[in-house]
Amino acid sequence: MEKFINITLKVWRQNGPKDKGRFEIYKLNNITTDSSFLEMMDILNEQLIGEGKEPVAFDHDCREGICGMCSLYINGHPHGPDDDVTTCQLHMRKFKDGETITIEPWRSAAFPVIKDLIVNRSAFDQIIASGGYVSVSTGGVPDANAIPIPKADADEAMDAASCIGCGACVAACKNGSAMLFVSAKVSQLALLPQGRVEGARRAKAMVAKMDELGFGNCTNTGACEVECPKGISLSNIARLNREFLCAKLQD
Amino acid sequence: MSNLFCSSVGKKLVMSISGLFLIMFLFVHLLLNSFLLIPDGGEMYNAGAHFMATNPMIKVMEPVLAIGFIVHIVYALILSHQNAKARGNVAYASGNKTQGVSWMSKNMLILGVTVLAFLVLHIAHFWVKMKVTGHDLLAHTTIKVGGVETEVENAYALVNYTFSQLWVVIVYAIAAIGLAYHLMHGFWSAFQTIGFSNNVWRVRLNIIGAIVAWVVGLGFAIIAVAQHLFFQA
Ligand code: HEM
Ligand code: SF4
Ligand code: FES
């Protein structure tokens, strides 16, 4: 049922990468619980513009949970307190009347703040560019049964492929590790015959890039899996370790 | 292969293998310690200790064990340092409210340091006295080994005396429980690191890990407490 709530926002503001940054407090009244979190942020920005202040910068694009562009660390969770949703799919009904909501950018050395709540996630693009693809053209859509793939493998590859590259795993990790992301990208290809061919090279290249960019070492705490909006499983990390170690032993 | 150990996964492999090796050592050590529960005035224990002290296999393993510990600790420090750096120095103002992440998994270094503090004490109490400086209590005693009268060091007397001190027993028990918690996460983590895990094995490894952790942890603790309570002359 639709309700209206009054909330206090504690928002990280930072003018640029070099700025020290600080929290600002904003009050918002009569926010419908039917609005999404980002709609609420839009209302905040309209209010700020009306007051002649600078709006809060935050990342977003599709607003339907598929592009991986939205971020925001909300009340102690990447993508906020709801399970298995991105910030754009989080709704204000998850918050209580009178609540103070703290909004921070992803914090990790490999994701430096650009402005306010926007961090630079191009490190993920660099990891993908280092090997997260199939380098031969596979042509048009082949006949569905031309290459038999076990159902279990197809399912696991599909689950891994649901990673949207948002970076919540890194934001949640006490080690700033990108292993969940990298393992999803390695797994989605390693499980299928088209991607299998370059499996060893891909695992080595992507891990090397991940290390070079200053992401941490995974200690298997599992925080990433809990906070991942797409439910990417830790079993992918075991697969990445397997792929990587086998590839190195073959050298 | 060459740059394997420069990579994050390679360094974790070192952690994993050294950790699993240390677990194997703990089982051998626990087996020997369990002889302390036999009420025979320490004969069986002294025989076991004598076997350990004279067996060439053990002579080889002793430095390997020391290297195992050193490697595990050095890599623990390197990895922890790198991870702190990767995390960056700005903490979340709203804290970390992620549910369902075990406390152990986030505090492996603290738990490891508990084990290390104990290890230093342990070496000072037993290893140094048995191997380097010697101790009055170790005066030779004669036992039957396989029916043959053999003169051996009275290791039991030293152990028995050490555990007569309440503070030693308390420190020992705390460290043993710290070790159990270290392994509650460490056991499954080691298998995950070498790639031997999936959604099915993760559950199994966690159960086996919990059993291993508490058999080892409580095993060491109970033996120390029993020595203090029931085996004092
Ligand atoms: C008998 C003693 C010990 C045993 C049996 C043991 C066992 C283990 C095992 C099995 C792991 C999991 C490895 C992995 O995640 O792949 C581990 C991790 C760890 N150990 Fe130990 N350990 C011992 C002593 C120590 C000591 C003395 C320290 C530190 C001073 C230490 C610090 C750590 C740390 C920080 C980790 C986590 C490292 C990571 O996951 O990156 N451990 N240990
Ligand atoms: S693994 Fe999950 S949390 Fe990490 S980038 Fe992919 S979708 Fe986001
Ligand atoms: S804006 Fe596209 S996933 Fe949230």
UniProtKB/TrEMBL annotation, chain A:
Q: Which residues form the 4Fe-4S ferredoxin-type domain?
A: 154-184
Required cofactor(s):
[3Fe-4S] cluster; [2Fe-2S] cluster
Q: Quote the SUPFAM superfamilies the UniProt record gives.
A: 2Fe-2S ferredoxin-like (SSF54292), alpha-helical ferredoxin (SSF46548)
What the entry lists under PROSITE patterns is as follows: 2FE2S_FER_1, 4FE4S_FER_2
Question: Which GO terms label this protein's molecular function in UniProt?
Answer: 2 iron, 2 sulfur cluster binding; electron transfer activity
Q: State the Gene Ontology BP annotations.
A: aerobic respiration; respiratory electron transport chain
Which InterPro entries does this one have? 2Fe-2S_ferredoxin-like_sf, 2Fe2S_fd_BS, 4Fe4S_Fe-S-bd, Beta-grasp_dom_sf, Helical_ferredxn, SDH/FRD_Iron-Sulfur, Succ_DH/fum_Rdtase_N
Q: Which family, according to the similarity comment?
A: Belongs to the succinate dehydrogenase/fumarate reductase iron-sulfur protein family.
Q: Which NCBIfam families match?
A: PRK07570.1
Q: Which PANTHER family match?
A: SUCCINATE DEHYDROGENASE, SUCCINATE DEHYDROGENASE IRON-SULFUR PROTEIN
Specify the protein name. Answer: Succinate dehydrogenase / fumarate reductase iron-sulfur subunit
TrEMBL record, chain B:
The root-end lineage is: Bacteria, Pseudomonadati, Bacteroidota, Bacteroidia, Marinilabiliales
**Any GO CC annotation of this UniProt entry:** membrane
The alphabetical list of record keywords is: Membrane, Transmembrane, Transmembrane helix
Membrane found in the keyword field: yes
Could you tell me which CDD domains the record lists for this protein?
Answer: SQR_TypeB_2_TM
**Membrane in keyword set:** yes
The lineage's top-level taxon is Bacteria
The record lists the membrane-crossing segments as 12-38, 58-78, 108-128, 166-184, 205-230
Protein name, please?
Answer: Succinate dehydrogenase / fumarate reductase cytochrome b subunit
